Amino acid sequence: MSFGISIEASTNKKQKPDPKNLVFGHHFTDHMFIMDYDAGQGWHNPRIVPYQPIALDPAAKVFHYGQTIFEGLKAFKKADGTVITFRPDKNFERLNRSNERLSVPAIDEKLGLEALRQLLLIDQDWIPEEEGTSLYIRPFVIATEAALGVNPSQKYLFMIIMSPVGSYYKEGINPVKIFVESHYVRAVRGGVGDAKTAGNYAASLKAQEEAHERGYSQVLWLDGVHRKYIEEVGSMNIFFRIGGKVVTPALSGSILDGITRRSIIELLRHWGEPVEERQISIDEVIEAHRNGTLQECFGTGTAAVISPVGELSFNGEKYTIQDGSTGELSKKLYDTLTGIQRGIVEDSLGWMIEIK
Amino acid sequence: MSFGISIEASTNKKQKPDPKNLVFGHHFTDHMFIMDYDAGQGWHNPRIVPYQPIALDPAAKVFHYGQTIFEGLKAFKKADGTVITFRPDKNFERLNRSNERLSVPAIDEKLGLEALRQLLLIDQDWIPEEEGTSLYIRPFVIATEAALGVNPSQKYLFMIIMSPVGSYYKEGINPVKIFVESHYVRAVRGGVGDAKTAGNYAASLKAQEEAHERGYSQVLWLDGVHRKYIEEVGSMNIFFRIGGKVVTPALSGSILDGITRRSIIELLRHWGEPVEERQISIDEVIEAHRNGTLQECFGTGTAAVISPVGELSFNGEKYTIQDGSTGELSKKLYDTLTGIQRGIVEDSLGWMIEIK
């Protein structure tokens, strides 16, 4: 089905950035997808147009009340030129779960996938092929009704933009240093921590800035109630390998249901590695470090894929993990997952969708 | 000082809405104030221009990471035509406290006040004079850097827009019904609940929608840790009058430091009425209702001023307050505060600033 997506091709193609020196999220492709919503009319006018600024009334609700949702996923190009994407269906499912939480009208997931397919085909020359690079895809919804007053918007825009990217962290696959945050809180049960909405990220900036000033890449968030249980890291989920077992915080309602998180769990189980999804306290991690059973720690996310953690700072103490180097399992997971994504490792779990 | 604010007057004046039928936040004046920020250059190019859409890159950080701050205040016109505003200095102070929490660069408060003065003068014909109406003023900051990746923006816009408004609630000064929310949580200590940032409002929509479906105007939020202590109501702070004493939740870090809240406390103390700012649990309120000492309940906020609460719903039980009618103190506070704001009651606390 074409879903009646119209296409206005760009007549003024942009110069592509050097694929060897890509920074994250600073270049955008020639086209974007856009679709309107009005109460009564529903979602309508799906279209691919040249990448361009959008004009909004200064009273647009997104500026004032933050009603917005986003997703992040990646596309790759195989050696034979085939375009493949990693589990895009999961992103559109989650988009609608986030929409529901933020009172945003649902989007037909099949239409979203078809829009993505057509946009990828028209801009496939933008997919970088260097190792460690990809085309990062950002679907998002913003509330556009021009009216002050706190209530769900009567108008929205759904858009997809795409950006050729390199590593999310300047460290690449090298271990990052993480600051365990005891003062600031990202989210709490009953809140919107499990929705991919802008406000969760705004709420994280101050702690992240202070962590940077102390020489750390990201913060590790503790739960908002007890300030004790581990939630997630900056823009990633987190895993620990303790005494041979992999442990990651259970989905509590206040952390993001990461698609990379889910994939890592499925991959480990496919390998016969035990994985526990449960509450894990910072005290348990520190104790495991003290008794020598904390073997590895890594973050997972679409942008960074796998990011090994080489050091944790908690309450003024520094805890080095795996001598600050990348652990064996982290490396194997990174190589396997990025290999599957680039089409050079067998996709035995059926994750990659070919775009044609 | 003029701060070098340039003015481009509108040549195409809009038709003003009927002041007798104003809804909240749907009409905007002929002009707006706008100022740019770039890292390195700082805030620059302050200007008043015709009210118009703004063009932003689809990757502008406000759409993705919600780095945005706002304020709300009101201007009035006295019978002699004098334009007056209610405590605007407090709003610009709070704007910068919110900016600090959200890693947004500070704005010169004197410049903000001067921009407001000039904007009010050029659009003073838009200030409605009917009882219960005012010109609602919305200063706000949005992050505009076109880059994906979670970190503070390198570019911002600061704007002021203005809207002639009637009552915030369709009930006007009549009592509203409030649903005490036990499932959803607005904010938690360590979070951004005390900053006036978009994400806090996005996080409130779902609970508000469900409360509306049950026939309630707003929700009363409980604290995120114990789910027991009263925080605030929708877009208002909340006060109770129990056994002759006025009680309002202390500023805990997760509730908004309301300027109307502060003014009500100052006014009550000026009258010699005792006011307690402290933790107050929903159980204490229910118990006071049971033993007949819960005399009044009212919300306070810039938009609604004073909004009496006629009914609370908690855990499936309904608690009617003051027989569902407006209490004596609520009425006196409303009449006094709106009287001061409209220039017909003596401004003995020196709150009103004349614009000339």
UniProtKB/TrEMBL annotation, chains A, B:
Its cofactor is pyridoxal 5'-phosphate. The keyword Zinc-finger does not apply. Gene3D superfamilies: 3.30.470.10, D-amino Acid Aminotransferase, subunit A, domain 2. One of its GO terms (molecular function) is branched-chain-amino-acid transaminase activity. Its EC number is 2.6.1.42. Pathway: Amino-acid biosynthesis; L-isoleucine biosynthesis; L-isoleucine from 2-oxobutanoate: step 4/4; Amino-acid biosynthesis; L-valine biosynthesis; L-valine from pyruvate: step 4/4; Amino-acid biosynthesis; L-leucine biosynthesis; L-leucine from 3-methyl-2-oxobutanoate: step 4/4. Keywords: Amino-acid biosynthesis, Aminotransferase, Branched-chain amino acid biosynthesis, Pyridoxal phosphate, Transferase. Pfam families: Aminotran_4. It comes from the Bacteria. Transmembrane segments: none annotated. It catalyses: L-valine + 2-oxoglutarate = 3-methyl-2-oxobutanoate + L-glutamate; L-isoleucine + 2-oxoglutarate = (S)-3-methyl-2-oxopentanoate + L-glutamate; L-leucine + 2-oxoglutarate = 4-methyl-2-oxopentanoate + L-glutamate. Belongs to the class-IV pyridoxal-phosphate-dependent aminotransferase family. NCBIfam families: ilvE_II (TIGR01123), PRK13357.1 (NF009897). This is Branched-chain-amino-acid aminotransferase. It comes from Paenibacillus thailandensis.
